[in-house]
Protein backbone atom coordinates (compact mmCIF):
# COMPACT_ATOMS: atom_id res chain seq x y z
CA UNK A 1 0.00 0.00 0.00
CA UNK A 2 1.59 3.21 -1.18
CA UNK A 3 -0.29 6.47 -0.83
CA UNK A 4 0.95 7.55 -4.28
CA UNK A 5 -0.61 4.41 -5.81
CA UNK A 6 -3.87 5.01 -3.93
CA UNK A 7 -4.05 8.56 -5.29
CA UNK A 8 -3.40 7.30 -8.83
CA UNK A 9 -5.99 4.52 -8.57
CA UNK A 10 -8.72 6.31 -6.63
CA UNK A 11 -8.35 10.04 -7.42
CA UNK A 12 -11.20 12.01 -5.90
CA UNK A 13 -12.08 9.21 -3.49
CA UNK A 14 -9.02 9.97 -1.36
CA UNK A 15 -8.26 13.20 0.49
CA UNK A 16 -4.69 14.32 1.18
CA UNK A 17 -3.78 15.88 4.53
CA UNK A 18 -1.68 18.89 3.61
CA UNK A 19 0.63 19.08 6.64
CA UNK A 20 4.40 18.51 6.90
CA UNK A 21 4.41 15.60 9.33
CA UNK A 22 7.50 14.33 11.10
CA UNK A 23 7.64 10.53 10.99
CA UNK A 24 8.81 9.03 14.28
CA UNK A 25 9.07 5.34 15.15
CA UNK A 26 10.26 2.28 13.27
CA UNK A 27 6.89 1.72 11.57
CA UNK A 28 7.06 3.92 8.50
CA UNK A 29 3.64 3.12 7.02
CA UNK A 30 0.31 2.12 8.49
CA UNK A 31 -3.38 2.04 7.68
CA UNK A 32 -6.68 1.32 9.33
CA UNK A 33 -10.05 2.60 10.47
CA UNK A 34 -9.93 5.96 12.22
CA UNK A 35 -10.57 6.66 15.91
CA UNK A 36 -10.38 10.29 17.07
CA UNK A 37 -9.48 12.47 20.02
CA UNK A 38 -9.71 16.26 20.15
CA UNK A 39 -7.67 17.80 22.96
CA UNK A 40 -5.51 20.84 23.51
CA UNK A 41 -2.33 20.55 25.59
CA UNK A 42 -3.96 17.84 27.75
CA UNK A 43 -3.35 14.17 26.96
CA UNK A 44 -5.43 12.44 29.67
CA UNK A 45 -8.28 11.56 27.30
CA UNK A 46 -5.83 10.38 24.64
CA UNK A 47 -4.06 8.07 27.09
CA UNK A 48 -7.40 6.62 28.24
CA UNK A 49 -8.46 5.92 24.64
CA UNK A 50 -5.15 4.25 23.78
CA UNK A 51 -5.55 1.94 26.77
CA UNK A 52 -8.53 0.40 24.95
CA UNK A 53 -7.93 -2.34 22.36
CA UNK A 54 -6.76 -0.72 19.13
CA UNK A 55 -7.82 -3.61 16.90
CA UNK A 56 -5.71 -2.24 14.03
CA UNK A 57 -7.25 1.22 14.14
CA UNK A 58 -5.37 4.48 13.63
CA UNK A 59 -5.69 7.14 16.31
CA UNK A 60 -6.06 10.66 14.90
CA UNK A 61 -5.49 13.45 17.40
CA UNK A 62 -6.43 17.07 16.83
CA UNK A 63 -4.15 18.85 19.28
CA UNK A 64 -4.81 22.28 17.80
CA UNK A 65 -1.34 22.27 16.15
CA UNK A 66 0.25 23.18 19.48
CA UNK A 67 4.00 22.80 19.60
CA UNK A 68 4.27 24.04 23.21
CA UNK A 69 3.60 20.69 24.92
CA UNK A 70 3.70 17.03 23.89
CA UNK A 71 0.56 14.92 23.65
CA UNK A 72 2.55 11.69 23.29
CA UNK A 73 5.76 10.47 24.90
CA UNK A 74 7.54 7.14 25.11
CA UNK A 75 5.26 5.72 27.83
CA UNK A 76 2.05 6.43 25.91
CA UNK A 77 3.71 5.21 22.69
CA UNK A 78 4.29 1.87 24.46
CA UNK A 79 0.58 1.75 25.33
CA UNK A 80 -0.23 2.43 21.65
CA UNK A 81 2.05 -0.42 20.56
CA UNK A 82 0.99 -2.91 23.23
CA UNK A 83 -2.75 -2.41 22.66
CA UNK A 84 -2.75 -3.12 18.93
CA UNK A 85 -3.11 0.32 17.39
CA UNK A 86 -1.85 0.54 13.79
CA UNK A 87 -0.41 4.03 14.34
CA UNK A 88 -1.15 7.58 15.39
CA UNK A 89 -1.38 10.91 13.56
CA UNK A 90 -1.09 13.96 15.81
CA UNK A 91 -1.87 17.55 14.87
CA UNK A 92 0.55 18.59 17.60
CA UNK A 93 3.81 17.64 19.29
CA UNK A 94 5.48 14.59 20.84
CA UNK A 95 8.42 14.17 23.21
CA UNK A 96 10.91 11.39 23.91
CA UNK A 97 11.41 11.28 20.14
CA UNK A 98 14.73 9.39 20.34
CA UNK A 99 13.11 6.61 22.38
CA UNK A 100 10.03 6.48 20.13
CA UNK A 101 12.31 6.29 17.08
CA UNK A 102 13.56 2.92 18.39
CA UNK A 103 10.06 1.52 18.97
CA UNK A 104 7.89 -0.54 16.60
CA UNK A 105 5.24 2.19 16.33
CA UNK A 106 4.05 4.54 13.63
CA UNK A 107 3.86 8.13 14.85
CA UNK A 108 3.24 11.13 12.58
CA UNK A 109 3.32 14.51 14.32
CA UNK A 110 3.97 18.18 13.58
CA UNK A 111 6.85 18.78 16.00
CA UNK A 112 8.79 17.67 19.05
CA UNK A 113 9.16 19.38 22.42
CA UNK A 114 10.49 18.34 25.83
CA UNK A 115 7.50 19.71 27.78
CA UNK A 116 4.74 17.34 28.93
CA UNK A 117 1.05 18.15 28.80
CA UNK A 118 -1.37 18.73 31.63
CA UNK A 119 -3.62 15.86 32.73
CA UNK A 120 -6.94 17.54 33.51
CA UNK A 121 -9.06 15.29 31.28
CA UNK A 122 -10.22 17.98 28.86
CA UNK A 123 -11.04 16.61 25.43
CA UNK A 124 -13.54 14.73 23.29
CA UNK A 125 -13.46 11.34 21.59
CA UNK A 126 -15.28 9.79 18.67
CA UNK A 127 -16.05 13.03 16.85
CA UNK A 128 -14.97 14.18 13.38
CA UNK A 129 -11.85 16.35 13.56
CA UNK A 130 -10.42 18.61 10.88
CA UNK A 131 -6.89 19.71 10.06
CA UNK A 132 -4.68 19.91 7.01
CA UNK A 133 -7.70 20.37 4.75
CA UNK A 134 -9.17 16.97 5.68
CA UNK A 135 -12.01 15.76 7.88
CA UNK A 136 -11.06 12.65 9.84
CA UNK A 137 -14.30 10.85 10.70
CA UNK A 138 -14.38 7.87 13.03
CA UNK A 139 -14.69 4.71 10.94
CA UNK A 140 -13.23 6.23 7.76
CA UNK A 141 -9.88 4.81 6.62
CA UNK A 142 -6.46 6.40 6.95
CA UNK A 143 -3.35 5.50 4.95
CA UNK A 144 0.05 6.88 5.99
CA UNK A 145 3.53 6.45 4.53
CA UNK A 146 6.63 8.46 3.63
CA UNK A 147 4.65 10.50 1.09
CA UNK A 148 1.90 11.60 3.45
CA UNK A 149 -1.51 10.91 4.93
CA UNK A 150 -4.67 10.04 2.98
CA UNK A 151 -8.26 9.53 4.09
CA UNK A 152 -11.01 7.60 2.36
CA UNK A 153 -14.59 6.91 3.37
CA UNK A 154 -14.01 3.18 2.69
CA UNK A 155 -11.19 0.64 2.82
CA UNK A 156 -9.31 0.73 -0.49
CA UNK A 157 -6.96 -2.21 0.14
UniProtKB/TrEMBL annotation:
Which keywords has UniProt assigned to this entry?
A: Lyase, Metal-binding, Plasmid
What are its E.C. numbers?
Answer: 4.1.1.112, 4.1.3.17
Q: Which InterPro entries does the UniProt record give?
A: RraA, RraA/RraA-like, RraA/RraA-like_sf
- At the top level, the lineage of the source is Bacteria
Question: Cross-referenced Gene3D superfamilies, in alphabetical order?
Answer: Ribonuclease E inhibitor RraA/RraA-like
Q: Which reaction does it catalyse?
A: oxaloacetate + H(+) = pyruvate + CO2; 4-hydroxy-4-methyl-2-oxoglutarate = 2 pyruvate
What Pfam families does the annotation carry? Answer: RraA-like
Cofactor(s) demanded: a divalent metal cation
| Keyword match Mitochondrion | no
Name the family: Belongs to the class II aldolase/RraA-like family.
Its subunit composition reads:
Homotrimer.
Its biological function?
Catalyzes the aldol cleavage of 4-hydroxy-4-methyl-2-oxoglutarate (HMG) into 2 molecules of pyruvate. Also contains a secondary oxaloacetate (OAA) decarboxylase activity due to the common pyruvate enolate transition state formed following C-C bond cleavage in the retro-aldol and decarboxylation reactions.
Descriptive protein name: 4-hydroxy-4-methyl-2-oxoglutarate aldolase
Species of origin reads Ensifer adhaerens (Sinorhizobium morelense)
> Which gene is this protein's source?
rraA
